[in-house]
Write a structure and sequence with these properties.
Layout: H1 3-15, H2 24-28, H3 40-57, E1 67-71, H4 80-93, E2 98-102, H5 108-112, H6 124-130, H7 134-137, E3 139-140, E4 147-150, H8 159-162, H9 172-182, E5 190-194, H10 201-209, E6 212-218, H11 227-240, E7 246-253, H12 260-272, H13 286-290, H14 298-301, H15 306-328
Parallel strand pairs: 1-5, 1-6, 2-4, 2-5, 6-7
Antiparallel strand pairs: 3-4
The structure holds adenosine-5'-diphosphate and magnesium ion (MG).
C-alpha cells in the first residue's frame, strides 16, 4: 500500500463518524507510520493492534458446564444480533464449542454466521413447533468449525402466536436444548440465544432455559427506557419459571467516547448496574456493520478492526467472569 492510499483511507476514517475503526488495509500498513508519528489516530491504531496481539495470544478459560445466555432487549437495533454472533465467534475462535440459536424471525444471526436460512430450511421453527431435534437443524458455520447455528427462517414470524396453543409453550426451547445437551450437544461450552425485539413467547422461551441474560445497551438517549419492563419480566420468570436466571451481563454497544451523551449514558448504566456492566465497550465500527453482508462475523471479516478487537475483549471478560463465578461457588 502506498502512502497516498494510506493517507486517503486515514482521512476517510478521520472525516467520517467512525474514527475508532481500523481497517485491515490500514492496519497492514502500520509499518508506513513513522516511528515518531504521534497523532491521536496513529496512537489509537497502534493501541488497537497491540490489544489484538495480546488477545490473540491470551487463553480464554472454558466453563465447567454449558453457559446459556439469552441475549435480550425488547428494543430493536441495539446490537443483540451483532453481540450474539461476534461474542460467539470470538469464543469459538479460542477453541470453545459454541452454539448460536437464532430466535428472531428476521434471521440476522443466521445471515451473519453464513448459514442457509431460506424459507423451508429446517430451522428453530421446526424445533419449537414440530419437536424436530435441534441436532437435525443445527448447521456448522463455514468460517469456524467449533461454531454452530440453529437458523431462523421467515417461518418463525408467526411462532409467537402459534406457540400460544401448544403444550408447555414456555418450555419448548428448554426441552429441545436439554435434549440436545444430553446427546450430541454434551460438549457445548456456550449457547447464545439471539432474541427478537419483543418480550413475547420466543423471548420467554429463551429466558426459561438460560442461566444468564446478556443485555446489549446502545449508548443513546432512550437507552434505559424499557429496561424497567425487561427487569420486571426477568423477576417474573425467576419467580415462576426459572429460578436460576440472572441478569449477569450488560454490554455497551455502538459507544462513541467522543460524545457527551454516550459517556453520560454509560455512566448512568454503570451506576445502576455496577456488577453487570462489562468494562469493555464496543465502538461503532464500519467493519462490524458490513461484516454480515459477507456472511461473516467481524472476527473473521477483519480481526484487526477496532470492532473485532472490542468483541474479542468482551468475550474474554465474559469467559473470565464465568471462571471467577465458578471459583466463588466452588465449581471450578
Ligand atoms: P438488534 O439485533 O438488537 O436489532 P443489531 O445487532 O442487528 O441489533 O444491530 C443493529 C444495526 O446496528 C445493524 O445494522 C448492525 O450492523 C449495526 N451495528 C451494531 N453494532 C455496531 C457497531 N459496533 N458498529 C457499527 N454498527 C453496528
Ligand atoms: Mg437482531
Amino acid at each position: 500500500m502506498s502512502n497516498d492510499d494510506l493517507h486517503s483511507s486515514l482521512s476517510a476514517v478521520v472525516d467520517g463518524p467512525e474514527a475508532g475503526d481500523v481497517s485491515r488495509e490500514t492496519s497492514d500498513a502500520f509499518s508506513a507510520f513513522d516511528e515518531g508519528d504521534d497523532s491521536p489516530l496513529a496512537r489509537e491504531m497502534i493501541e488497537t493492534e497491540r490489544r489484538r496481539r495480546e488477545l490473540s495470544e491470551a487463553d480464554f478459560p472454558h466453563p465447567a458446564r454449558t453457559r446459556i445466555f439469552a441475549v435480550t432487549n425488547q428494543k430493536g437495533g441495539v446490537g443483540k444480533t451483532t453481540t450474539s454472533v461476534n461474542v460467539a465467534a470470538a469464543l469459538a475462535n479460542k477453541g470453545a464449542n459454541v452454539l448460536v440459536i437464532d430466535a428472531d424471525p428476521q434471521g440476522n444471526a443466521s445471515t451473519a454466521l453464513g448459514v442457509e436460512h431460506r424459507a423451508g430450511t429446517p430451522s428453530i421453527y421446526d424445533v419449537l413447533l414440530d419437536d424436530v431435534p435441534m441436532a437435525r437443524v443445527a448447521q456448522q458455520c463455514p468460517d469456524i468449525p467449533t461454531l454452530w447455528c440453529v437458523p431462523a427462517t421467515i417461518d418463525l414470524a408467526g411462532a409467537d402466536i402459534e406457540l400460544v396453543s401448544v403444550v408447555r409453550r414456555e418450555y419448548r426451547l428448554h426441552d429441545a436444548l436439554e435434549r440436545l445437551m444430553q446427546g450430541p450437544g454434551k460438549g457445548l461450552d456456550y449457547v447464545f440465544i439471539d432474541c427478537p425485539p419483543s418480550l413475547g413467547l420466543l423471548t420467554l422461551n429463551a429466558m426459561v432455559i438460560a442461566q444468564e441474560m446478556l443485555i446489549p445497551i446502545q449508548c443513546e438517549y432512550y437507552a434505559l427506557e424499557g429496561l424497567t419492563q425487561l427487569i420486571k419480566t426477568v423477576e417474573m420468570v425467576r419467580k415462576h419459571l426459572n429460578p436460576q436466571l440472572s441478569l449477569s451481563t450488560i454490554v455497551l454497544t455502538m459507544y462513541d467516547a467522543r460524545t457527551n451523551l454516550a459517556r453520560e449514558v454509560a455512566h448512568e448504566v454503570r451506576s445502576h448496574f455496577p456488577q453487570q456492566t462489562l468494562e469493555q465497550t464496543v465502538p461503532r465500527s464500519v467493519r462490524v456493520s458490513e461484516a454480515p453482508s459477507f456472511g461473516r462475523t467481524v472476527i473473521s471479516h477483519d480481526p484487526h478492526s477496532s470492532g473485532a478487537v472490542a468483541y474479542m475483549a468482551v468475550a474474554k471478560e465474559i469467559a473470565e467472569r464465568g471462571r471467577r463465578q465458578e471459583e466463588e461457588s466452588g465449581e471450578a
